[in-house]
Amino acid sequence: xxxxxxxxxxxxxxxxxxxxxxxxxxxxxxxxxxxxxxxxxxxxxxxxxxxxxxxxxxxxxxxxxxxxxxxxxxxxxxxxxxxxxxxxxxxxxxxxxxxxxxxxxxxxxxxxxxxxxxxxxxxxxxxxxxxxxxxxxxxxxxxxxxxxxxxxxxxxxxxxxxxxxxxxxxxxxxxxxxxxxxxxxxxxxxxxxxxxxxxxxxxxxxxxxxxxxxxxxxxxxxxxxxxxxxxxxxxxxxxxxxxxxxxxxxxxxxxxxxxxxxxxxxxxxxxxxxxxxxxxxxxxxxxxxxxxxxxxxxxxxxxxxxxxxxxxxxxxxxxxxxxxxxxxxxxxxxxxxxxxxxxxxxxxxxxxxxxxxxxxxxxxxxxxxxxxxxxxxxxxxxxxxxxxxxxxxxxxxxxxxxxxxxxxxxxxxxxxxxxxxx
Length: 422
Description:
The protein has 422 residues and is an alpha+beta fold.
């Protein structure tokens, strides 16, 4: 019963997801049309021709997706539909950049109607259309080609990363489905021989599988936050700074180089996270040296002095302990960059007999920790929650102290579990 209930819930969730994917194109089309009428862009196609094309696009989606949902299993027909969708999106973006909200649907439908490598083609074309919309229309291609190329690159990095994770998740889901079938067959054989224990065995197997899936999801959520989310935040910051220094070629080049370096680093760390491999810095350096390198990179990107100190006698720790402390330092520095408005940050790594403690202090704006012991990020962020989960999983604890105008101190204390020499 438990397994069937879980399967029914998963099936119901997928049906609701499919329903949302059928509605999204009309929402994006309606929003783009409204904005195009209320705030028409310069050199737009005109209200009446734009409305005609928008109506034709809506009819195209309604005919292939809304009225005939069963057609999604017909690959050839769906290829024709998707080509038409991108064609309408291209015409509408050329007519008014507000239709980027409609072009964005190309990302979603690339995975719901296309197969194999055609998905990559769909993502690349969609990223190009969205970048053109973000740049203000076709004029950005001729008037500011470098900016348009940067926007295309940024969209490809974001969409490519998300698409890659989606394909990995899809493959893992297929493996899990095969595993469930195999486990079901084994369970039926066990039921024939030990009928009185069949219910207990089925319940234990289901609980173990759900616990494993939940643990992996939580691990991936933390890793995505620690790699992609923080990396993309840094990329956006550098690109915004580049836009503000377009008249100073040296500063513009430096910000663009920083954004490219962050993109490469984030992609590398994301791949290592999926394979559950330690961060690259810990593969080539000890934890104190990795923290010094982290502080130097962060200081160079954010223009805030970061001092790193080590007390006690450094010694090799269990890999999971070192990864936990490094990720805690990354999250604490990311919070300082986003919220603190600090002029100085200090990181102290303290080796004690049976504990290792990482303290991160800043002289920023602070907050009232008595009312909100764990500050939330805008939009209900995952940062300090992920840090606390990581530290708690290895038997440690996190303490946050802050006062308005007096800065913030975050302390992560973990057991000093020994590791092999490396």
